[in-house]
Amino acid sequence: MAGTVKYACWHVLGAGAIGCLFAGALQRAGSPTTVLLRAGATATGITVAVAREGATRRVELPVSTAIQPGHISHLLVTTKAQDVCTAVMSVGHRLDSSSQVLLLANGLGFAEELRASLPSPVYYYGTTTEAAYRRDPSRQNAARREIYHAGSGITRIGRPGISTPPAWFEQWARAVQPSTWDPAIEQSLWLKLAINCAINPLTALHRCPNGDLARPHLAPRVANLCEEIMQVSAAAGYAEATANLPARVAEVVTATAANRSSMLQDVLAGRATEIDYITGHLLRVAVRHGIAAPANEALYRSIAALAH
Ligand code: KPL
Q1: Position 36 in a domain
Q2: 196 C-alpha vs ligand 1 centroid, how far in Å?
Q3: Is it the case that residue 223 has pLDDT exceeding 90?
């Protein structure tokens, strides 16, 4: 007789498009998954409707608020970079040294802040190229999320220095396809940061779709940014990851030509941007290594000024 499969129970912080997409996938694949909403939320459950190529799949997910008690064994964090620390700290009383926390936010730098405040959980890091966005524009109904799954991508997960995936990864990879265990996750996260530094702030500043970065008025600026990013990367030990940065950026610009970058979407919606954890992180590393990055610095200042 086949043994009973024990599924990992996931809690998800960050009920945006990627959080809902992955929460729905985990729940459908058999992992009991709960969405954590901020204190004061009154919904008792949410319906996630994921549309893809004309078909819509609905999944019901239970919700709970961070302040409720109960141990969290597996936590997926898909908030904005600047919210990671506060969000995870809000469930700090529910985490211990057996808790597995997967950080899947854009940018870098938040994990160090978090580990300093909350060292006990086991942290994993991820990056995804799945493309999804919420298309319930008014966002009036807190109990319903309409997600459009705009493009398939790959989800890379790892933990620096660990080549063998943890027990939960097999179930995860069956739910969130394709996912891969990445023994060089630091390199992958840095490459993603480098690509985001070259694309996101410039599109946010010029309020243009990603494809416009290939046009003659912006292409030289992208090339200049890439040059500086590669110098900082080399000094920080990521020369290999960014060896072909201009070509990688060009690929992403072409593949996502019609899309608005996440930073442009934040600017247009009047939300805080992730600039401190994208270009801001690059600049902190540049300072540490005594490297000048004036084009990136100017861009950082322009985007940071939008918030005021
Ligand atoms: O990751 C992205 C983002 O918008 O944050 C890119 C790759 C630039 C796609 O738009």
Answers
A1: yes
A2: 6
A3: yes
